[in-house]
Amino acid sequence: MNAAETTPPVLLEPEADDAWRGVAAEDNEDISSSVGLKLQARSRRLLRRLIRPQRVPALLAAGVVVLSEAAFLLGPLVVAYGIDTAVPALLAGDAGPLVFATLGYLASGIANAAGKAVFVRLSARVAQSVLLDLRSQVFTHSQTLSLSFHQKYTSGKVISRMTSDLDALADLAAEGLEGLISGLLSVGAISVTLLVLDLDLGLIALAAFVPIFVATRWFQRRSRKIYRRTRSAIASVIVQFTETMNGLRAVLSFRREDRNKAIFGKFNDENATANGDGLVALAVYTPLVRLFGNLSLVATMVIGAVQVIDGTLEIGVLAAFLLYVRRMYDPLDELAMFYNTYQAAAAALEKISGLLEEVPGVPEPTDPVPVGDGGPIAGHIRFEGVSFCYHPDVPVLPTLDLDIPAGQTVAVVGATGAGKSTLAKLLARFYDPTAGRVLLDGTDVTVVATRELRQGVVMVTQESFLFSGSVADNIALGRPSATRREIEAAADAIGASTFIRALPEGFDTDVRKRGGRLSAGQRQLVGFARAFLADPAVLILDEATASLDIPAERAVQHALHTVLTGRTAVIIAHRLSTVAIADRVLVMDRGRIVEDGSPDTLIGGNGAYAALHEAWRESLL
Amino acid sequence: MSISVQATTESNARESPTCRTPPAVLARVPAVRSLRRLYPYARPALPALIGSAITATLAMLCGLAFPLVIQQIIDGPVAAHDRAALWPLAGLLLALGVAESGLFWIRRMLSARPIMRVEAAMRADLYDRLQQLPVSFHDSWSAGQLMSRAVSDLATIRRFMGFGLVFLFVNLTTFIVGVSILLALSWQLGVIIAALALPLVALCYLYETRYQVLARRSQDQVGDLATLVEESVLGIRILKAFGRSGHLSRQFLARARQLRATELRKASVISALWAVIIAVPEIAFGLTLFLGIRQVADGALSAGTLVAFFGVALGLRWPIDSIGWLLAMSNDAASASQRYFEVMDAPITITSPEHPRATGSSARGHLRFSDVHFRFADAPASPDLLRGVDLDVAPGETVAIVGATGSGKTTLTSLVNRLYDVTAGCITVDGVDIRQLDLPALRSQVSVAFEEATLFSASVRENVLLGRPDGTDQDVLQALRVAQAGFVHDLPWGLETRIGEQGLSLSGGQRQRLALARAVVGSPAVLVLDDPLSALDIHTEAQVERALRSVLVGTTALIVAHRASTVQLADRVALLADGRITAVGIHSELLDAVPAYRDLLAGREDHQASRASRASQPSTRTAQVSR
Question: Which of A170, A200, B297, B411 has the fewest C-beta atoms under 10 angstroms from its C-beta?
């Protein structure tokens, strides 16, 4: 039973030099340091690109923090002024400094409060804009990636990139910015102040930076590895979770609950261990920072005190030193925490930037050309020397030449694996041919804008996924601009409206709620209505009637008679009843077209189609 | 019911001395109550949490002691130029410094693992619960909302437990200790600082009402986004086929903008809160400064005491300021906990009975539907989908179910292994109501294949043996033979090849054959097949049918059929219409006698053909395919 976990998935070996490109390095935690550097550089590039449009509000936020931090630091000085100056002045009968100190303190306090408030708003604006930008980039990009990528990468992983990885970045955005800015500011300002006050003592106070730097390097190396692991671990959790929820009927029916629990438990524990390792690393790192800070404080204290006793240092300078040194190592804690959040986010960013870097297998042309002469698409299809394979040594289509005149209805038949679906997918440009060209009205489909191509060529498959929303929404996906009347007309035309109107809320029935659950056959009818509404010049039906019962199939066929007039259609079907409406039949075998002719001629002959037809007739009784 | 009432009174009793909850708040679930429900999960980590709260408090005290020791050094050895007296105090300072960082280390080490284990336990329980909840629950919940609960919400709760809770305690303690010191130093000035607690507490309650709504909305919106993400990935083929990725991206962007708007509103609430939380103490400090200086001038207070007073008071700034984000964190965790328990509290409606009845060691598989009614639980207003189905399937008999699209065939089949429960009437196996049987036992006796074949990311062997993990290779090979799934042997690792989403992808027909193999493996007592051959080509279909016949002899089977060829597998056919079985009989009889059946099973042309050929050979080429 453990075979499932030990069997490696079939993936192409990445080229050694490209091992870090795209998502290739994803499940690899022991990546070489050079690859690691490239990954980090890549995520930093992405971060810079994201922040660039937000640099004005970001700088503004930084400016506000400087002011509010200055106001915060002013507080103790005002208190000192009050005690040193206002008390003697008051004794001398002058209440001026008292009023001045009080108002000064109130002013600094209110400035501090106002600054914090403004900063929270500004930094939220920056952070949320960056996140929005990244979210939509990842979403849009994953949509442009080819089906072969999605097949290999699995839905759960894409989902985890767009959810939990983005959460890690949201954490950074939410808590990181302030810690970073105020931490850096305080540490910088105080360091300068110390050095100016007394160079020697200042250097001693700052000596702690050396071991802190070493500790930070250690933490950097350690945490980076751990956080990469946490990203992979939570992705595994999400993949298993998604798979279970999507296959729940089978899980329950075949009592896979316990086995699932064991698999999920393993990933869940691994996630807990990886995150625990991260917390432990942090548990070592932050106290180290604090320890070095405290040691430096004690050293400064002792050396300073000795100097004062020896008369080489003013007592006031020492007092100031101690206050400042203590104050410097507080923000240093914040910096350490920021660094931790940053490391977690960086690991997430590595994965996200990898996904963003994946080049679509079916790229959008940089310089798109209109189909044909630029007028309405006629639907003339030509395959010129087209060959295709998923793996270099397993050809699916050896070489294919085919000409389908505009308006013709072509049926493609043949056994499983004959290459029928591949033909359809090349035509719809789900894949690009390995060699040769697919032409639509004389234009290579690879240079046509995806938008235009999808308007002209629509494919309906046996897959019948429904998106959340109403039945009408799902049909409208064929043409979002369609009116309600057009949507209903499309359903009427293919005979789907009877069952839709019988639903609790008719076309407005939510497909996920209140009796809106549709059977596979009903979902296929919705898919048909969608295609009808899309009104393309070329319609490809790939086993689109497999789940329909006979009356529904008959209704669809009846509709197809009218629908297909003036349209090019490629129909792939096991049931020859669907093939019956074709002008022309192609019989495929092992990637080649072995018969080509009108249905009547082929039935009359004694080739493969005649035999197939015979078998089908027998199956009907 | 009684438990929740008890909880309410208990919580009121505990809270009433410190707070007066405004009436508007009563409508919501108070954050404290949502958080208290986490207690059973937090319990194993409690020693660690208490330990880290204590160490954090001690560390905080070390921090507070630091300026006092430094003051001693400056006032003592330094002022007196006494080098010898310096060392003990310096040693004390060193000890405090080492102790503080040591306590830091202990605090984090104590909580690191236990807190992660709490999160993992909560997630495992959620997953477990979701696997027990009935299909009807999953019908109405989007997977994205479930996932956001399992991932984001639990992370929020973990952060609150590991950090928020500890620091709520530590900062409160610090505040109390600090104010006590202040009161000891000067009670007049100390009272002013202590008094600021009142407006802050009031403010926090006001703020909680506003923030909690937003926290919940934001989490729900995160779940909605996850749902859209999931649909965009699962429906990618349709989106690509229609070129509608842009359409969905726009929807996603609109939702993401809504989330951003909520987050910005959260930020503006926090920002207002922070402004007040920071400003109020600062005003109090300003006031004490004014009064303090006057008292020093009057001689009522020593200058040294005023210095010490402010040394301590300024140290309280962070604990007070942090209330803002600690409250935000608690509220986030409270609504995350609410969302978590919404799922955990959902009733598991389909369970094994307390005292299951045994069907006897040799189940014969006599399947009987008696006046079966069914209606989806979330559609109480609509008429029943099944309105009195009566059907008797004798042991070893195969009955095909035929019915129009949407007539409830698939629903009928999912009642047999209790994916849904009947709303009235009953289904019996060997005379025992299936609701009186042990659920796993029932599901192992009733084997199913769905119209959509679900494969898991596991080896071919594991996928076939899903319901019978103890099956042998022989069983697997036999089942694969029946399902004509010989292609398995050509896969790179044969039976060990990993398939499903994380493995090799198979065609629709291949998936369907494996699902069929899974259903027939280990000769189940009752076999339920929902249109199991729809994706197969004619040759394969014919081969599968031939092989399936051998299995069906001696197996009770219910087969949903759309085609005459599938119907041929059955001994009898039942026609499902208007929520009832309206006709039962042999295929050819029904074809002749029942027009509704003829409509369903014979295509127009085939029907003509069958009529034309009734006298002659069944398959002549005389029947023309109509164009």
Answer: A200
